Every structure is written in C-alpha cells, then in structure tokens.
Amino acid sequence: MSRAPAPLDRRIALGLGVVTFVVLWTTERPVGFVRDESVYFYAAEQFSRWWALLFQRPAVALSDSVITQAFDFNHEHPMLMKSLFGWSHTLFHQMLHLVRPAAGFRLPAFAVAALIPAILHLWGSVLWSRRAGLFAALSFFVVPRQFFHAHLSAFDMPVAAMWLLVVYLFWRAEEDLRFAPWTGVAFGLALATKHNAFFLPLVLTPFGVLAAWRSASADGRQLLVRMGQVAVAFLALLALLLVVKGRSGLVQSWQVLSPQTFGVVALVVALSTVAFRLRRRDPAAFLRLAPLVAMGLIGPVIFYVHWPYLWHHPVERLAWYFDFHATHVHYAWTYFGNVLRAPPFPMGYVFVVTAMTLPVSLLLPMGVGLLRTGVRNLGDLVPALGRRFGRGGPTEWLLGVNALFSILLISHPEVPHFGGVKHWFPSMPFLALLAGREFDRAAAGLSSALSLTARRGTAVSIALGAIVLLPAFTLTVHVHPYGTSAYGELAGGIPGAASLGFQRQFWSNNVTGVLPWIDANSRTGARVWLHEVNGLSFRDYQRNDMLRKDVIPANGPEDADLAAVQYHQEFREQEILVWQAFGTWVPATGLYLDETPQVVVYRRSGR
Amino acid sequence: MVKRRLPRVNETAHRLRTAAPALAMVLVALLGLGFQLQLPRAFPSDADYREVAAALASAGAPGDVVFLHPWWTERARLFMPPDLPVVGYLGHTSDDLLEHPRIWVLSNERLPRTPEADFRRNFLPDRTPMGAPRQFGPLTLTPYRNGRARRVVLSAIDAFDRLQVSVEGPAGTPAQPCQRTGSRVQCPFDASVEVAWHEVLFQPVRCLFVLPPSAGRTLSLALPDAPAADALMLEAGITWEHAWVPDRAPVDLRLESPAGVLHLRVPAGHEGFVRSETPAAAAGSWTLRLSTANPHDRQLCLRLRALGGPP
Asked: Does this complex have an ipTM over 0.85?
C-alpha cells in the first residue's frame, strides 16, 4: 500500500486547513489574552524590532550585547512561533492595518494549528478511508479545550501540530527517501517551537532502527550494531557524568569545552559516519534510518540557527534552557477537591482529566481506538492475542506510542501538572486519528448491516458523523471563548466538575466576560484590579479596545475602585482580601458559567 | 419451521452485531446531547434568586445564615440581603456555624454531581428542619435548627479595642508595648494584630490576624476584664497558602484564664483551624501568648470566644 494520499484527499486536506484557519480567525475576537500570551506578544514585538535592525544595521544587530538585549526577554522558549507572531503583527497590523493587534499576532498560530486537520485527513484517508480521515480531522477541533488553545499565540497547539507533522513525515520517509530531509526540517521546526520536541527522537528511534534491522543485510546489520555501540558508549558517558556531577551539575557544568560537549559531538560525528557508510552498503536499510539521520543532522542546525540568543553562547544558554524546563516550578492545581502544589502528583491525573474534559461522544471512539491499538500491538508479541484480535504492525505501534507518549510523560508523578490538558496535546491528534478509524469501522458496519448502496452508505456515514460530532460541537460553541473552563458530560459539565472539585479555570483569559460591564459601570479614570491579569495583558485589552483606555490598573484591592477576582481554589484569599478592602462580600456582577463562579467583580462602595 | 427461522435469526443477530459500534456511538452521542439539553433546567433564573431573597428578608432574623449547597453556588451572593451572611466554601459542610442558631439551606439538587453524601454525613447531624422546604425554580430553601450553635458571650475580635498587646523577650527582660495605628496594633519585631477577613483552608474568616514577632520573641494579648463563660474556645489557623509551606516551625499558643492554662499548637504544614476548649471559666483576665520560629510565613488567624449554652 502506498503511503501517498490521493489527489482528492490532498485537496480535501487543503480545504480542511483553510476552513480551520478561517474559523479560528473569525472566532478569535472574544478570546482573552492568557497570561503567557501577552508575554509572547511583547517578546514578538521586541524580536521584530531586532529583525528590522538586522536589515538596517546588520553589524550592530549581530553583536552579542544587542542580541542579548533583544532576546533575553522570555528566553525560556525558542523563537520560531514568536518570530512568526512578530512578523505577522508587523505586516498585517502595523503595515497593512488589516487586523487588530491581537489578530496580527495570532494569525500564524491559526495557520500552524490548521496543519493538524489537514495532516489527520491525509494520514487517516491513506490508512483507512476518506471517512476516517475526515472524522479524525473534524473531531480534533470540536473538543472545546483544543478549539480554545488553537486561538492562542502560544506554543502548546503549535508543538502538537509540529509533533504530528514530524511523525507523519517520518512515516512517509520510511517509504519514500525524498521525505527524509523534510522530516529533519520538520524536527528542527518542532525543536524551535517548544521543548516537547526534544522527546521526538526518543519516540521515533526505536521505529527507525527496528525497521532498518528488519530490512538490513548481514553487512547492514553489522553497521547497525556499530551504531548501537556508539549510542551505548554515549549513554555510558552520560551515566558516568550523571553519577559524578548529579542531575543539576550535569546541566550546569556544561560548557563549550566539557565532557558533555565532547560526548554530543562524538555521538553526532560517529553516528553520521556509520549512517553514510550504511547508505553505500545497504540502501534498503538506510531508507528506514534516513529520517532519523536527517533529524539528527538538520534538526539541531535549524534549532541553533533560528535562535540568535544561542549564537554567541550556544552551550551555556542551551544548558540553562534545559535546566529551566527540567526544574520547572509547580503551580497549584485543583483535583478532586485537593489543591496539588508539589510532587508526587496522582498517577491517574492525566487520564482522569482527559476523560473529564473530552466530550463523551469523542471519548468513546478515542478510548476504543486506543484499546484496539493496544490489543493489536500486544498481538504482535503474544500470538494467541494476535490470532484472536489481529496484529498491529509498525504503523499501529507508531500511532499507539504517539497517542500515549505525552500522556504517560506528564503522568509521571514528578512532572509539573498545571496547565489543564495543554501539556499533553501532542497525544491528542493521534487519539483523534484512532477515533477516525473507529468511526470508519462503525460506519462501514452500519452500511453493511443495512445492506446499503455506496451512495446511501455515504449519506448514512455523513448522518452518523453529524450525530457523533454534534454534542462536541454544541459543547464547544456553548463554552467558547472560555475554553479553560470546559468539562465534558462525564464530569457533569462545568457545574459537575465544580462539585467534583476540579480546577475551575486557569490563565486569566475569562476576564473578558466582565470587561464590557467594567467599561459600562466604572467612572472615568477608575482604578481596576484585574486579578491574575498581568500588566501586559491589561495593556493588550486596552489596545485591542476590549477595555476603556482611561481605566488604570490597580496593584491590588487596597488601591482599587473595582476588583475582578478569578475563581481559583488556591486564590481564595485574594477574594477575601477584596471583602476586607471594600467592606462587602456582595459582588456587583460576575462571569458565571452554568452557575459556576469564574470571575467575580466587586465595587468599592461609593465609587 | 425451526429450520426456516434460524437463518433469519442468525442474520438479524449478525446485522445487529455489525451495526453495534455505530449504535453505541449514536447512543452515547444522544446521551451527551440529552445531558446538554436538560442541564439548563438546573440553573435558577435571577427571578428565582430574587424570590429567595424576598423570602429570607421577610422570614429572616438576626443570627441567621444562608448555607449554599453545593458549596460553590455563590451566584446567590448577588441577590441575598447584604446583611445576611452567606456561607459557601469547599469543606463548609463541616462548619459548626456555632454563632448561628438558624441555618437557611439554599440547595440546588438538580445540578449534576451534587455532593449529597457529604451533606448528609457532615451537615445534617445535630441539625433539624424547622419548616417545610420551599421551592424557587430549581432552588430549595429549608430552615434548619442548628444544634451545634452556642451563645457567644464575648469574642476577642469584638474586644479588640480593649486588648493589651505587647512583645515579650526572654525571661527577665521587660515586655515591649505595641502601638495602635489606625485599625492595627503594630509591635516591635515586625509583629502586628488587626481584625481582618482572611482565608483558612478555603474558609473566609473574620478573625484576629496576627503576624508573630521575629527573633524568638513572644506576642502577648491580654484582656483584663473578660466575663464568665461555660467555656473558652481558642482556634488558630495559618492563612492562605502559607499553611501548606513545608519545613516550617509550628506555632505555639498558651492561653491563661481563670479556667487554667490551655496549650494549643498549630503543627507545621497543617491546613485549617486547630481548636481547643477550656472548662467553665470565671470572670477575670485572659492572656494569650504565641510564638514561632518562622514568623514571616506563619500568618495566623485567631478566634478566641467565650461561649455560653445553647442560644
């Protein structure tokens, strides 16, 4: 079976991408600026100015001090998306005046998110059917939280898109060598999007190596063994350094001239040398390994080149970057009535929250799809299971591993658990793909049971798809633009989740629900405390005409006329301090989603 | 005859089996849709809340309190009479509400996953309905007699103006008096006392908010002319997230009164109030001393009340 999609499916994929982009654009206006987003807006503007300087005075722009000045802000994340945000804002807002400032920043996020349905259709249509591909593509974006996050100038949805792109291209490259360099490029872009991508080699290497081993000649296998020896030697060096220096010491002592640098350079050189020898001696085996080689050679180069902050101090700053994410702080998070503040976190957290936030009509095909994939993959290892349920094969393993990897990674009790579902987004497109297969099977079964003609079968499939997607669609429409508050039917919706003691919301964007009231009910020059909304977001609400420009940000309830408090279990003290400062426990208004308090507004008496 | 029917039965079973995944998907989707369609019926309108408020305004009495069930249905605050306390916080079913002889339970049992078991287990003991429930849309208003209520003879927050506050050093050194500045008593060694609203394990409490003194000193709060009481109840809790901070020292409290000496310790990492009671106390003076090795994040909410019998 060829892995290339049919021309019609390419056109459908393009259409899905375009429609996604347009839908995201037309629905972005009410979406609030999450805390991080305004930071990225600010960073993007700063980087745009550097790019302008680069064209005007390149020698100055490329100096260490100017690069540090321009890129030091928010250097905990790489530059690809922030650069795109900045360029888009400059072009579409500042130069062409086509869109408001926020939309100017967000357009690239829509474009990257639009890759997801397109790729899901391309992949699903080849693996199973056009029906499966379409369902997978549509089902991804009718999940309320995924729809919400796709609007943001942030990195969670882009890295999910990049992850999917890399794995898809890897899969294509295992059949067609022309895709190998593109896999490397996509991996570089993924690295340049968010640090999740550093786990991709861990996920994909076993697939590439096993496929190469299976198709290799005796000579080729010898070379593969040599590559394995090189990798083991590198791991041994790493283990030794870990023992001697400890985890933090390993990262913090990493410099240009250090055992760590030597190890990485030696690994890349040795593996590349053997890989190219494999290409000469065993092209069939090399074909399977080529995407990994491309990832290893092209990915890091793109990552380095795209981020000027690394140019003058690559090792030290990269070490800091790894250290920052390896030792990330834990934010409080409410789960079954407990405020989780520090590890160890509950093992079942990610599975439970995924189940509680997905619309139940999508949870079913996703869950069944994952189960089927698991059983079939086990069938590869246990012949009895294989005979009963069928066998998986490399593609099924690839889908299953990617559907579970990010979920399992975040499930580790020591990994930070804040951020709702966004940290395991890279798993979700694969779950959507598996749901597409289950839908395809169900629709085919229904057509067969009813002995329908092809045309009627298509009509029934469309009707079935509409019925299955409808609850998710209505849920998404109902909760938009407050996606961080969304819960599915299993939780009992938003009120059920409140009773169960789940996190009510996060990231402060729900404040948009009370901004019109504040605009209409505050005096000129009123001092307003928007709890959890940082100064940059406050500025962005004003410059995007979502909050009157004469309103002044207050530092806290004590110097405010109005206070809008975000309902978080860990921030109850903040609301009570407003009672204390304003002398009342009676709110003036609030954003209550399905009865649940989300943002509560108080007005100081007499103001 | 049997021979003729079997293939048809088999065929039907086969068709059903083949269509089962689609039917299951449709069923689940319809359940999901059904849930979404019926959910708005659980939401009270503004008019429902206004009717509740009117009912409470006409039937309410001093000392009443409104108890929200489930705890998070705080939209009610928008409508309730401003002088009527409304209690709704995570864990509130265990609150004795001892200053309130009558509790108006405002419940909404149509909401999904309403925590009924918690309500029955923690709220209902010692509470008896005082009248028939009244229905306002999906809301139910039921008055309860609070069997856990006690008469509060004196509360330290009401006697705040009479409190004599000082910081004591090691034995033999003279106590250093504190100064009243506005509504706060400011003391040496960064200590202070004021009456304020704060949170103790999600519970909003108006209490004596105490910043303990640094440098190993002890804060002393004395009330020279306290009345006789059936019991003195001392409660102390670290406010907000400071309670959780690990590896911190405990806070030690010592209450001297005509009833004797009462020791109380807020252990490290303890969230919520720690409570203790003395036996009956004659009229006389109370002196409360407290100290901790980690004063900066041991911000304390204190309640000291002289209690009588049931109201």
From this structure: yes
